[in-house]
Specification:
The chain is an alpha/beta fold and about 280 residues long. It has a single domain, classed as Vaccinia Virus protein VP39 (Rossmann fold). Helix content is about 35%, strand content about 25%. It is built from ten helices and eleven strands. The strands form two sheets. An eight-stranded mixed sheet has the order 4-7-6-5-8-9-11-10, sandwiched between helices. Strands 1-2-3 form a three-stranded antiparallel sheet, with helices on one face. It is globular, with a radius of gyration of 19 Å. Keywords: Methyltransferase, Transferase.
């Protein structure tokens, strides 16, 4: 019998009930009839038709809609992030089996790509506030755990994750430290100074991005064995990837129609990709 995506995702949740705590009262949770998550205090959260669960305690409105996640998926599938994914895979592999949280997973493409390279006994959990992204992740990558959740109130117990990834997304260090196991790995990716400088030159007067010294200093305050690496390369930009790339990047948000038209009409054979990757382990 062919299982539906909802059932496949519900089974993944069932196998990993121990990871969760209720976002309302912090009690333990369980899957009931593969249709809802219920805590011991009877707070209940229905699984969607795709098999993800919304564990955010508040309604949030984000700028991330279905078209943005569709654009992001096209860019990821086009190989734009491949050197970064190779780096993350190499950093995560020595951790062995365990559970990985992608905090700010979007539509799940990056986490799914990393999990495909890791042993089958690695459990992947993706969370994001944007329901559209999580819905896409649950449909496109069944068998993993996908949740709408707030970084300020993560619906997981203490010390349950071996690895936390935070790629081009806001961080909540207090929550990440709570969630990580002892000596667990945290890996954060931020844009480097030259990230998408060809587009930045169109949308901003100053084409240089922010310096990352403040980010590194803050990171070092929370983690030990800190390593900082730069991953920079030029990516051959096929014409059909230009519009999705512009759509997915916050660089273009708020830009005038004239600026957007100018960017879309440009011939950009190569685009500069520049990331700073910080990794560290939870202090004992």
């Amino acid at each position: 019998m062919i299982l539906s995506k909802k059932v496949i995702n519900a089974q993944a949740l069932e196998r990993n009930e121990h990871l969760f705590k209720c976002p309302v009262c912090s009690a333990g949770m369980e899957i009931v009839e593969q249709s809802k998550m219920v805590c011991t205090e009877n707070h209940s959260f229905d699984l969607s038709k795709a098999g993800y669960v919304n564990l955010s305690s508040h309604i949030h409105v984000t700028k991330y809609d279905k078209s943005l996640f569709s654009a992001r998926k096209k860019v990821i599938d086009g190989g734009f992030f491949e050197p970064l994914l190779d780096y993350i895979y190499g950093a995560v592999l020595p951790q062995g089996s365990g559970t990985i949280l992608d905090a700010g997973c979007g539509e799940g493409s990056q986490l799914a790509a990393i999990l495909q390279r890791l042993p089958d006994d690695v459990t992947g959990v993706g969370i994001d506030l944007a329901k559209e992204g999580i819905a896409t992740a649950a449909k496109e990558h069944p068998g993993n755990i996908w949740c709408v959740a707030d970084l300020a109130n993560c619906p997981f117990g203490d010390s349950v994750f071996n690895v936390i990834l935070n790629v081009l997304s806001p961080a909540n260090y207090a929550e990440f430290l709570r969630l990580l196991k002892s000596e667990g790995l945290f890996l954060k990716v931020i844009p480097g100074e030259d990230y998408l400088k060809e587009l930045r030159a169109i949308f901003y007067d100053d084409p240089k991005g922010q310096k990352d010294s403040d980010h590194v200093m803050r990171f070092e305050q929370h983690f030990e064995s800190v390593q900082t690496d730069r991953i920079a390369y030029e990516f051959p930009l096929d014409k059909e990837l230009l519009a999705p790339l512009i759509r997915m990047t916050p660089l273009s948000w708020g830009a005038s129609p004239e600026k957007l038209e100018q960017a879309l009409s440009m011939d950009i054979p190569m685009i500069t990709v520049d990331f700073t990757v910080m990794s560290g382990v939870k202090k004992k």
